[in-house]
């Protein structure tokens, strides 16, 4: 869109892609947020709704991908126009994965329902999810405004989510050690927390794609995609 | 490549992409296999090698992506030629993620080293990894030969990996319940097993991309990307 070519059907098509991506983004946010709410409130009806919504995300990704490829074939865009189209495919793919992760959390609601989620753990999951959702919301705003600098800032903030995830990881291990009856439900919560951490990664991927769309460059500097729990040997507090 | 256009520089470039993807595939297989070997043998030197190799995968993905976009801008391919180029971007991205998952498993070697991996669990992890590697190898073979039917068969076989993963998931929970001292290391092994299950998903993604490259269609029918452990309420055998 930054290009100086005259207003054209191609611009209309780009706008359509951007609108569909914004819609996917809104739905992804809702799914992630609802899944966590379903989890902490043992709300299996809400969980079911999240699960059934995932098919809409799959369809949207497919439609955006098909449309984008048709645009390349028909309009043969180059430079920033081409990057816009390729970037749209990538972002739709990341958002579809965010929807999957929301669905995956919703599917664990039943397994966790028997024991419920202890209050401090629920708060931890909620807080982690707020961080990831904030990241996702920011990145979708940046997508509307196309600021390469802001995209770069979001990319760096993923560390905050990783730190929160590591702390929750330790806390969950502690609960499991305190009472083996917590093991099954805490294992599910561990995977939920990991899913939320991955949602943060996808937001960061999207920030990188936006940076690329705006500048034609990939952002420099290492961005660790893996979490920091790999080396956790034992919880700080064994109760 | 299935197109009837005359032999051209574009064909040369497509061949180059295919060769780079095959190289990435070979490296991904090696990383996944080495990471599991490092895990079951507590071999931290091997783990370190896997971790350091990941940067080569990142570079390869970036190079393939840049090259592909340059090809689109310069050659303006349509139909199956365009699908080949777009498909290459997608496959490189899946292979890069497989490398990440191998690296993620390698990073857990230190955490598991203290307790070691009990023999039956080691065998379970090895078996799961063999299934995923077989799937990955098959899909890379199909990538060389472009058989849409074979790609479809691979896509369906992902269920075998999911079943094996669910069984390992239950077994790990049982170990944790039997002795809380197993909790930390078994949690790491759970994540390793999940990573391997995800490698199977990426192989399936690649099969879908190959199907799309060959036919221009997305494969039909639901393919569950999530695992089946979400509803595991308690292990079959509590010891």
TrEMBL record, chains A, B:
UniProt subcellular location = Cytoplasm
Keywords, sorted A to Z: Cytoplasm, Phosphate transport, Transport
Q: Do you know which InterPro entries this protein is assigned to?
A: PhoU (IPR028366), PhoU-like_sf (IPR038078), PhoU_dom (IPR026022)
The UniProt entry lists the main location of this chain as cytoplasm
The record ties this protein, via Gene3D superfamilies, to: Phosphate transport system protein phou homolog 2, domain 2
Q: Does the keyword Secreted apply?
A: no
SUPFAM superfamilies reported in the protein's UniProt record? PhoU-like (SSF109755)
What residue spans carry the region label Disordered?
215-239
Start and end residues of each PhoU domain: 21-109, 125-209
Superkingdom per UniProt:
Bacteria
* Record-linked Pfam families: PhoU
Q: Coiled coil: which residue ranges?
A: none
Per the entry, what this protein does is:
Plays a role in the regulation of phosphate uptake.
Question: What do we know about how this protein assembles, alone or with others?
Answer: Homodimer.
Q: Which family does it belong to?
A: Belongs to the PhoU family.
* Protein name (Swiss-Prot/TrEMBL): Phosphate-specific transport system accessory protein PhoU
This protein's species is: Rhizobium alvei
The gene is phoU
């Amino acid at each position: 869109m930054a290009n100086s070519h005259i207003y054209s059907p191609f611009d209309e098509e780009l706008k359509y892609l951007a609108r569909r991506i914004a819609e996917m983004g809104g739905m992804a946010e809702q799914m992630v947020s609802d899944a966590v709410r379903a989890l902490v409130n043992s709300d299996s009806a809400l969980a079911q709704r999240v699960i059934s919504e995932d098919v809409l995300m799959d369809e949207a990704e497919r439609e955006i991908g098909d449309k984008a490829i048709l645009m390349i074939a028909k309009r043969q865009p180059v430079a920033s126009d081409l990057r816009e189209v390729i970037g749209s495919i990538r972002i739709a793919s990341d958002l579809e994965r965010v929807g999957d992760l929301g669905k995956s959390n919703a599917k664990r609601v039943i397994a966790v329902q028997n024991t419920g989620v202890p209050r401090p753990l629920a708060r931890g999951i909620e807080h982690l999810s707020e961080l990831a959702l904030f990241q996702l919301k920011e990145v979708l705003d940046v997508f509307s405004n196309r600021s390469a600098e802001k995209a770069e800032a979001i990319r760096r903030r993923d560390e905050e989510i990783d730190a929160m995830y590591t702390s929750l990881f330790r806390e969950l291990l502690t609960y499991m050690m305190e009472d083996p009856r917590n093991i099954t439900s805490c294992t599910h919560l561990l995977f939920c927390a990991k899913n939320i951490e991955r949602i943060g990664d996808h937001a960061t991927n999207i920030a990188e794609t936006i940076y690329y769309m705006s500048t034609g460059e990939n952002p420099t500097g290492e961005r660790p995609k893996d979490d920091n729990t790999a080396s956790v040997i034992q919880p700080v507090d064994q109760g």
